[in-house]
Amino acid sequence: RTAEVRGDPRVVRVLDALAVRRGRETADVAARAGLGVAETSSVLGTLELEGAVARPDGGWVRRPGSR
């Protein structure tokens, strides 16, 4: 399933919109990725389950090596 998710262009856009150290709000990630907030939230949830992103202090960050 991970390979399927990684092949999704929305996933690539969301990962590209995230930083490793600086947390971003969902709306900011959505704007940077060119996606809607609901769609971005869904993608972030999937990526969080996979361990590719985290939300340590309320802002989304990409985990190192998750690209």
UniProtKB/TrEMBL annotation:
What lineage is this protein's organism placed in? Bacteria, Bacillati, Actinomycetota, Actinomycetes, Micrococcales
**Where does the record place the DprA winged helix domain?**
13-59
Name of the molecule in the record: DNA-protecting protein DprA
- Listed Gene3D superfamilies: Winged helix-like DNA-binding domain superfamily/Winged helix DNA-binding domain
Q: Which domain of life is it from?
A: Bacteria
Q: Which Pfam families match?
A: WHD_DprA
> What InterPro entries does this protein's entry cite?
DprA_WH (IPR041614), WH-like_DNA-bd_sf (IPR036388), WH_DNA-bd_sf (IPR036390)
